[in-house]
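Our consortium's second objective concerns turning raw sequence data into structural hypotheses that experimental partners can test. To show how far this objective has progressed, the report includes one record in full. It was chosen at random from the queue rather than selected for favorable results. The single chain below, 103 residues long, was entered without modification.
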Amino acid sequence: MERIEKLKEFYALNPNDSFVQHALALEYIKIGNIQEARALFESILNREPGYIGSYYHLAKLLEGIGEKDLAIQWYEKGMAASKAAGDKHAYGELQSAYEELMY
């Protein structure tokens, strides 16, 4: 919990810091606070669609709570964003997770 409290302090100082939001969302997932994690990931990607790492985690989270169609949409958005950014590694991870979900 100490880590979460520290991240929340950083987040309060700069609520538009995608790195801090992403880290906080991952911590929330660890403790089962799925709704807070989801809200943070969605906030990041709505504000900064080029923050590639959050696509995978948001889609996996949605997949885990049974929102398959929405997870597919986020995987697709992530693949498009990673392709546009030239990030082949992220594209491959997103594509693999997408295909696993689809087939």
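The partners drew two points from this record. Residues 41 and 58 are 6 Å apart (CA to CA). The radius of gyration is 14 Å. Both points have been shared with the crystallography group to help prioritize constructs.
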